[in-house]
Model the fold of this input.
Amino acid sequence: MTQPVIRVVGLGKSYETAAGLFPALRGVDLEIRPGEYIAIMGPSGSGKSTFMNLLGCLDTPSTGDYFLAGENVGQMDKDALAILRNRTLGFVFQGFNLLPRMSLQDNVALPLVYAGTDKEARRSAAREMLDKVGLGQYAESLPSRISGGQQQRVAIARALVNKPQLILADEPTGNLDSHTSEEIMRLFGELNAEGITIVLVTHEPDIAAHCKRQVKFLDGEIVSDHLTGAAA
Amino acid sequence: MLKAMLGEAWLAMGANRLRTALTMLGMVIGVGAVVIMIAIGQGAQYAVQQTISTMGSNLYIVLSGSFTTAGVRSGSAGGPTLNVADAEAIAELDGVANVAPTHQGSRQLVYGSQNWSTSVVGTTPPYLEARAWNIVNGASFGDSDVRSSTRVALIGKTVAQNLFGDEDPVGKTMRIQQNPFTVIGVLGSKGQNLDGRDQDDTVIIPLSTAQRKVFGTPFLGSVRMIMVQADSAESMPKVEAGIESLLRQRHRLREGSPNDFFLRNLSAAAESEAETTRTMSILLGAIASISLLVGGIGIMNIMLVSVTERTREIGIRMAIGARQKDILTQFLLEAVMISFAGCLLGLVLGLAIALGINAFTGMVVVISGSAALVAFAVAAMVGIFFGWYPARKAAQLDPIEALRYQ
Done:
């Protein structure tokens, strides 16, 4: 049995609000194994975004433990978290979040800058990833010159460039029309078929239907966790 | 990684050119002002030092004392209290380089159809050495000329021009009052002294000749003034004390009675003038460096705006693995680059204006490499100092908040 990429035990997160301590997440247990393709679902305020922030090492839990690739994340300081994000995670955001002044190639290569990779290796890795998402010919263009769907592909290339163990996608199709959304989901499907673990947050059932496993959140707890037809 | 960050800082600067340029302007003006002020200040100092060096360095003059006849007091150098023997005795003192008894007055010179009134100085050869005065044409007189009271004269440049015009004065005979004098040399030009008097408008003749033929003297061998040059600035206090005690002893002055001579330090006046210009240039530099401070605050202001504007970008960078240190370095680098570029432009502008001032007003400016280096160091420090707070603010942003920022 392989080691899980993600294992959370009794994970809880509370926020200080004017009305007192608000528990956004109340003791969540979950394991994600390599090669899984999992959708995190739930309405606004269900705790799924808080959960994603914790999974993405952008935030630290109030209670419980989070093991990412076997390492306990709860004990780490900010810089250690940054290094962990850089080496093991790839982010895909709803708003694409490309840096507008940089060429697509430089955008894709950015995680490698922080990893300390040398210039030539950065360039070739970025090229390779852009080719993989089918945008190699736009390498020198600025993000504003391409469509939203293409920008999201570039963001996926950026998430892949450091060969992460896990891709975290937060509403990746939220800003896209249904046709483009389908294309993006197809790309995710292909990547998963190559063995890449993907965790995707969405509130759209038809997007979640592409995933092999669905986890539903409500009021800070997991209310359902089941495999879908796509898993077959 | 630093290289990649430099490239990014360059991009960020280029993203809003007008803003970057205006921010830089603060540094440009600050550094430019400092460079100009230093150039002018050092130029003024240099000019004063030049004037001092034409006067001669480490000089004292001893003037004969005043005397009272029937209630009428003469001014200084009025009484015959100093003589050539005093000068010879002073020359024996430790630390004394040159001693020249002098007798000076204004007389009319005549050559051919030209005449000119000038200051006639009767003295001995050490006078020229004490005042570091050279002969550009002809030769000086010697001790034998002083002993035998020969009628020879050295003339200043102004006298040569006014009396002889284009002619070569050397070997010509002119008259001082009724007495014919042979011009044996022309003195090098010294220009104005600190009072603005033309030092070249003078005639130098042997002391004994001056006393016998030109001025006359109540007692043979008495002089009104003795010029003394110490061999170094360090020995000046010793020489001053030595002259005073020597002359009191020679003049048989009792304890408690006043000196019958005046001792003046010529260099002190000049040095106080130099001190004044030095203080002035430090003051100007200090005022100019305030504008550097203002420029630095401008950089801080813009960097703070930039951090706020780019909050989302910072969030993205953090999400994909930038450490606090990386964000800090990036923004600090931007601030330093703006500061440096501004400094470079300011340096060029300042030098251009300083040279322009020199070309158009003739004011002396001194451009020193060390001043430029200091300006650069200050600019780097301003960039780091004023860039630190905004960069730190950026580095300490919470990645989740930053990513959510619209």
